[in-house]
Structures are given as C-alpha cells and as structure tokens.
C-alpha cells in the first residue's frame, strides 16, 4: 500500500516472517493507515542502504519511516503510531496514565521474558530445552492471570491493545516452535483463557492478515533447528 494523503508518507521496512514486523503491520492495519511495505533482505551482507541509514545502531527491522523520519523497535513503533495518529480509532493504549504504564510493563515483560524463553526452548536440547519450555509456560501463566484480572476479551479490554499486539504477534512463532521441537509452550489446560484469547486474536479482522507467514516461518525454523541439532563436522 502506498503511503500518501492525510497519513503522510509512511513506509515499513521488514520481512513477512518476522513477529516484530507483524506488530507494526497490525497497528497500522487497526488504525487504517496506508503505507508502503518494503521487503528487506536481512542477511548481513545484503542489508539495504535505506535500512542501514534508518537504523544505524542495531541495523535491524522493523523500521517505520514517517515523512522521512525513521522510528525503530517494534513496541516503540506501535506506541509512536498510537501517538502520531491519536485521533484515529481504535485506541491501542489506555487513556488513563496508570493503565498505560501497566500496558507498557507487560509489553516489556513479553519482550524481556516471554520471547527469550521461547528462543532458548527453540535453540536448546535435552534438559536445557525442557527447562526453557517450563519457563515459557510459567511466563505465559502470568499473562493468563493478567487476562483473568481484566475480565475482558482482550488485554486491552473490549478491543485489541498494546499488550495484545505484543503477544499476539508471537503466536505463530510459538505454534511453529512447538511444531518444530515437539514441546509445549502454551499449555491449553493450564492457560485456558490465554488459549481462547489466542484463537480469537488470530481470527480478528485486520490482525489475521498481518500475522507472519506460517509456511515461510516453518521452513525457516525447521532449517535453523536442523543446523542447531546437527553434530559438529569431523576434522
């Protein structure tokens, strides 16, 4: 989609298999913001000059470019979208300052605790993998309690908000890691509310089309897992 008109010029640098890029695509779709998606080659030697110039510190996707100004890091970008288009419904963050701070806390928890434990479960073997899997389940159980406390369909209340986007974009990754490794990360018996939320989230309009490509992610993670578990070559 070409960014123009009242939204200004909006570009998104990313790849379709990335859950972090998915977060930004979800926020843009929910807000109804038109943008140009630029598919990046993120291998070290092939990163575009636009990406390197836009994110010179981390040199990573996603990057949102709004009227020539780059914004980096997925959660920061989602918050930027909410603030830059604050007159456009739906609202992705609570209006109350305390509730907004709580949403930021749990979004940070997802990035600092949930995602790393999933990565360790994917990369690990044996006891290390089992421990990481158990840690993932425990982290998600905390989010089960958060969802229970809201008494609503979403972490954001009656509609999708920042925490929903932060965790929801990881759902395809979680499901694919479970499939590739044959371990349980989201236990439906231990976290029934979270499981029901996940099903509902993935079917939500404007969200489902922004989710990472399942087939592409499965091929990519299967190849990476094979590399990680292959015995070292003999000299």
TrEMBL record:
Gene3D superfamilies found in the cross-reference section: 1.20.1050.10, Glutaredoxin (3.40.30.10)
The UniProt record lists the keyword Transferase: yes
The protein, known as: glutathione transferase
EC number: 2.5.1.18
Enzyme class, spelled out: transferase
Residue ranges constituting the GST C-terminal domain according to the UniProt record: 96-221
InterPro entries: Glutathione-S-Trfase_C-like, Glutathione-S-Trfase_C_sf, Glutathione_S-Trfase, Glutathione_S-Trfase_N, GST_C, GST_C_Tau, Omega/Tau-like, Thioredoxin-like_sf
Annotated gene: GSTU18
Natural source organism: Pinus yunnanensis (Yunnan pine)
Recorded superkingdom: Eukaryota
SUPFAM superfamilies for the chain: GST C-terminal domain-like (SSF47616), Thioredoxin-like (SSF52833)
Entry GO CC: cytoplasm
Reactions catalysed according to its record: RX + glutathione = an S-substituted glutathione + a halide anion + H(+)
GO biological process, one term: toxin catabolic process
UniProt similarity note: Belongs to the GST superfamily. Tau family.
Cited Pfam families: GST_C, GST_N
């Amino acid at each position: 989609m070409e960014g123009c008109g009242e939204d200004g010029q909006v570009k998104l640098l990313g790849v379709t298999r990335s859950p972090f890029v998915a977060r930004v695509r979800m926020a843009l779709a929910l807000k109804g913001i038109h943008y140009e998606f630029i598919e990046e080659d993120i291998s070290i030697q092939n990163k575009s000059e636009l990406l390197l110039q836009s994110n010179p510190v981390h040199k990573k996707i996603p990057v949102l470019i709004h009227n020539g100004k780059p914004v980096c890091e997925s959660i920061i970008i989602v918050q930027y979208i909410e603030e830059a288009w604050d007159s456009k419904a739906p609202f992705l963050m609570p209006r109350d300052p305390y509730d907004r701070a709580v949403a930021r806390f749990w979004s940070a928890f997802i990035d600092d605790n949930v995602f790393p434990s999933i990565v360790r479960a994917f990369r690990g073997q044996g006891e290390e993998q089992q421990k990481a899997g158990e840690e993932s389940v425990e982290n998600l159980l905390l989010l089960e309690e958060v969802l229970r406390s809201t008494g609503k369909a979403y972490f954001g209340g009656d509609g999708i908000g920042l925490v929903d986007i932060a965790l929801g974009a990881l759902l395809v990754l979680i499901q694919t890691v479970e499939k590739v490794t044959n371990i349980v990360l989201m236990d439906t018996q231990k976290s029934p509310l979270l499981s029901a939320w996940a099903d509902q989230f993935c079917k939500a309009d404007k969200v489902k089309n922004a989710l990472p490509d399942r087939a592409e992610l499965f091929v990519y993670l299967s190849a990476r897992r094979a590399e990680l578990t292959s015995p070292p070559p003999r000299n």
